[in-house]
Amino acid sequence: MSADLENTLYLELKDGRVVIEMRPDLAPNHVARIKELAREGFYDGIVFHRVIDGFMAQTGDPKGNGTGGSGQNLSAEFSGEAHIEGTCSMARAAHPDSADSQFFIMFAPAPHLDSQYSIWGQVVEGMEHVHNIKKGDGMMNGSVADPDKIVSLKVAADVQ
């Protein structure tokens, strides 16, 4: 378990806690923004609107359909890190500097995403709970009917 509670997130899902070690060394601005949003309670109750079995689970859209965000775009912070199981990375539109509040957690390695998306964290505990997130329709780009929600997302340093 990470000793740096300020850069650790507790993602509470229906099946239990997921511990995410944040990577400010890779994406300092994305880490700072996610912590800011988590501390505001922004992510609490937000659905996993796009979940593709064997690929990833995407969340962070207050509209719940992939078109929303917090209203603050972030400049890309691409790195040489690999997208592997448990990697947490920012979702974005076509423009590299369009990431906002949406992010995804990898179910499996996806080398085609490397150096194209800002990686900001890694699941270090509870990956089995991530794998239990309700999957979407493969024919509908992973769109999920009656999707699972984030119960809460908190910075570990703030949790008693």
Automatic annotation (TrEMBL):
Q: Which PROSITE patterns would you find in this protein's record? A: CSA_PPIASE_2
**Alphabetical list of SUPFAM superfamilies matching this protein:** Cyclophilin-like (SSF50891)
Give UniProt keywords alphabetically: Isomerase, Rotamase
| InterPro entries noted in UniProt | Cyclophilin-like_dom_sf, Cyclophilin-type_PPIase, Cyclophilin-type_PPIase_dom, Cyclophilin_A-like
**Isomerase is among the record's keywords:** yes
Keyword Magnesium attached: no
Record-given protein name: Peptidyl-prolyl cis-trans isomerase
What broad taxonomic lineage does this protein's source fall under?
Bacteria, Pseudomonadati, Pseudomonadota, Alphaproteobacteria, Sneathiellales
